[in-house]
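User: Hi! I have a protein structure encoded as tokens and I'd like to know what sequence might fold into it. I'm fairly new to this, so please keep things simple.
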């Protein structure tokens, strides 16, 4: 597969659990990448999804880049399955209760939601949904972020952890 791309030579890979498709983190001599093998999607549908991703990216939403093959294709066929290779975006491990991180995630979801709503789609893949599969939510994402009581939520999480903790198994410190 990698011989069809200009992404370096194979070093190793890690299989990431996925429900419908196969997803791998591939490490090469040039870096890390995400390999997605689509078990049942056809090329027309993948082109549709990639088109949506491109439109969202043009609205300044951070989405992983899809790498082209040496022949300039975004979608590659291998062993009768379609696949794409995307950039690997290194994540940060955060504590379970990190209010600022939760706000960042909510703001990013809101940004993606708003950009998806702007896209006009000729709907061939979602029958019964007239022209647009992204329906406006009753909730306003920004208001949820601003009005949400983060301190109370943090307190509830900590109280829940405290209740589930088996205190008799804890060691005492000096």
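Assistant: Happy to help. Inverse folding works backwards from shape to sequence: for each of the 174 positions I chose a residue that suits the local structure. Here it is:
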């Amino acid at each position: 597969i990698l011989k069809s791309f200009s992404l370096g030579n194979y070093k190793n890979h890690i299989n990431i659990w996925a429900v419908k498709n196969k997803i791998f983190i591939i490490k090469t001599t040039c870096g890390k990448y995400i390999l997605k093998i689509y078990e049942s999607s056809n090329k027309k549908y993948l082109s549709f999804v990639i088109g949506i991703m491109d439109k969202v990216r043009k609205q300044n939403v951070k989405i992983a880049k899809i790498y082209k093959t040496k022949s300039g294709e975004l979608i590659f066929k291998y062993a009768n399955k379609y696949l794409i290779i995307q950039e690997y975006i290194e994540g940060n491990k955060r504590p379970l209760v990190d209010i600022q991180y939760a706000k960042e995630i909510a703001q990013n979801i809101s940004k993606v939601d708003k950009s998806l709503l702007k896209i006009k789609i000729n709907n061939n893949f979602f029958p019964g949904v007239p022209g647009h599969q992204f329906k406006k939510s009753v909730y306003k994402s920004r208001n949820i972020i601003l009005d949400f009581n983060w301190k109370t939520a943090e307190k509830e999480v900590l109280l829940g952890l405290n209740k589930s903790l088996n205190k008799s198994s804890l060691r005492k410190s000096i």
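A useful reference point when you look it over: The radius of gyration is 21 Å. Feel free to ask if any position seems puzzling.
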